[in-house]
Amino acid sequence: MSGKIEYQFYATVWQYTSPKGGWFFISLPTDISKEIRGLFKWQEEGWGRLKATAKVNDTEWNTAIWFDTKLETYLLPLKAEIRNIEKLEKDKTINIIVWI
User: Fold this and answer.
1) Where residue 16 sits, what CATH number does that domain have?
2) Is there a domain that residue 1 lies in?
């Protein structure tokens, strides 16, 4: 991804459950989130949304990360399609790349 900053890290898949179902996320490491927020906060859209590209193994997709003020980190949602392709499950630790 030329022209974008690459962040590579390991993170564990977690699930937020609600009465309407559950969402799966990766929390970006705090130090990476601080750097991203410092560089790109001005590009955030509503609710702290920041456009990004992500990659797990061979699967790359356009997405967004969301800043969670309670956790003080960005969250990367993992769509069912991506979880199915890469066999991602809750509590699985994965290597991920995010480009901003």
Assistant:
1) 2.40.30.100
2) no
Task: For residues 19 and 15, give the distance between their C-alpha atoms in angstroms, rounded to a whole number.
Answer: 13
Q: Nearest 5 degrees, angle CA 84-CA 78-CA 95?
A: 85
Q: Is 91 left (phi over 0), alpha (psi -120 to 50) or beta?
A: left
**Structural domain count, the chain:** 1
Question: DSSP string covering 18-84, please?
Answer: ETTEEEEEEEPPHHHHHHHHHHHGGG-BGGGEEEEEEEETTEEEEEEEEEETTTTEEEEE--HHHHH
Domain range for 75 is 6-99
- Residue 4: DSSP 8-state: S
pLDDT in tens, the chain (100 residues): 657 999 999 999 999 877 776 799 999 999 999 999 999 989 888 888 899 999 999 999 999 999 999 999 999 999 999 999 999 999 999 999 999 9
**pTM: predicted TM-score of the whole model, two decimal places:** 0.88
